[in-house]
């Protein structure tokens, strides 16, 4: 695929984010997903090494200051295994780290703190320069072996077609990737959409954080459990604000177990599970 064609399809690329700060990771994931990218997140070096071969990313964003691994060593390791551009994104104040990063295969270096627009521009430029095409679609994190979302292939209807789900006033049209509350479209990020599909496809069934992380990101990692909490809080807020005339179904936390969506109407529960 030539660079011009690649540039036209960069929104379908898979980005492998190696970042140990949960807040930064969630922010970057939301920003990248809102731009149409698929994001797979690793919270440390060990996770990055174990996940990268399966993720087969089109681009890697790598933090050098990881709790368990020298980021420069990891950069060289990832580059030897995956033919994808690497953007180092780090708060290190050692100028030689940037130089060494380039020598070890990095394609760009962004210093923290940074503006998200700058990072997005660097991502787009790196993808344009890359000669390899995107390996997967806009929802790459969902392609790893995992519990399938009903309506996606094996768990769909008898004809294999995607299905729709209705929970109270909430309607999910999985064929069109559309969510409506009382007929009003709810604007969701890809992560929030996958969460609402996972819950709405199994109303009244409790799903653990691990189940949800497996469905949403394609892997289970205890370190991202709180990320699920944050995304669900945002999902609740969006559902409540989408249509003031309609009360959305509750997304309820079941302490010690996980979350469920219930057909009963009422105020959205927001306690920790």
From TrEMBL:
From what organism does this protein derive? uncultured Chloroflexota bacterium
Task: Give residue ranges for domain Response regulatory.
Answer: 14-127
Domain named OmpR/PhoB-type: which ranges? 162-263
According to the UniProt record, list the residues that bear 4-aspartylphosphate: 63
In residue numbers, the region (Disordered) covers: 128-163
Question: GO cellular-component terms in the record?
Answer: cytosol; protein-DNA complex
Record flagged with keyword Phosphoprotein: yes
- The Swiss-Prot or TrEMBL record marks DNA binding at 162-263
| Pfam family, any one | Trans_reg_C
Q: Its GO biological process terms?
A: regulation of DNA-templated transcription
Q: Any idea what this protein is called?
A: Two-component transcriptional response regulator, LuxR family
Ordered alphabetically, the record's keywords are:
DNA-binding, Phosphoprotein, Transcription, Transcription regulation, Two-component regulatory system
**Alphabetical list of InterPro entries matching this protein:** CheY-like_superfamily (IPR011006), OmpR/PhoB-type_DNA-bd (IPR001867), Sig_transdc_resp-reg_C-effctor (IPR016032), Sig_transdc_resp-reg_receiver (IPR001789), WalR-like (IPR039420), WH-like_DNA-bd_sf (IPR036388)
Extract the PROSITE patterns matched here.
Answer: OMPR_PHOB, RESPONSE_REGULATORY
The GO terms describing molecular function are: phosphorelay response regulator activity; transcription cis-regulatory region binding
């Amino acid at each position: 695929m030539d660079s011009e064609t690649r540039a036209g399809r960069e929104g379908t690329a898979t980005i492998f984010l190696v970042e140990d700060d949960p807040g930064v990771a969630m922010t970057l994931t939301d920003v990248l997903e809102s731009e149409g990218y698929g994001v797979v997140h690793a919270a440390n070096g060990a996770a990055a090494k174990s996940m990268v071969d399966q993720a087969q990313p089109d681009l890697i964003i790598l933090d050098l200051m990881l709790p368990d691994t020298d980021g420069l060593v990891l950069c060289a390791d990832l580059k030897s295994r995956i033919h994808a551009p690497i953007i180092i994104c780090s708060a290190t104040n050692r100028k030689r780290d940037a130089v060494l990063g380039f020598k070890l295969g990095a394609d760009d270096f962004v210093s923290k703190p940074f503006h998200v627009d700058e990072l997005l521009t660097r991502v787009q430029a790196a993808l344009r320069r890359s000669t390899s095409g995107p390996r997967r679609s806009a929802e790459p994190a969902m392609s790893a072996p995992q519990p399938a979302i009903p309506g996606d292939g094996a768990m769909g209807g008898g004809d294999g077609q995607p299905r729709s789900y209705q929970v109270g006033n909430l309607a999910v049209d999985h064929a069109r990737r559309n969510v409506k509350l009382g007929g009003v479209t709810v604007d969701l990020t890809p992560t929030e959409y996958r969460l609402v599909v996972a819950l709405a496809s199994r109303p009244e069934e409790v799903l653990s954080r691990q189940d949800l992380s497996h469905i949403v990101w394609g892997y289970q990692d205890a370190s991202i459990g709180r990320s699920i909490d944050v995304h669900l809080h945002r999902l609740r807020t969006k559902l409540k604000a989408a249509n003031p005339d309609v009360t959305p179904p509750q997304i309820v936390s079941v302490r010690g177990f996980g979350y469920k969506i219930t057909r009963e109407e009422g105020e959205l529960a927001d306690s920790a599970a």
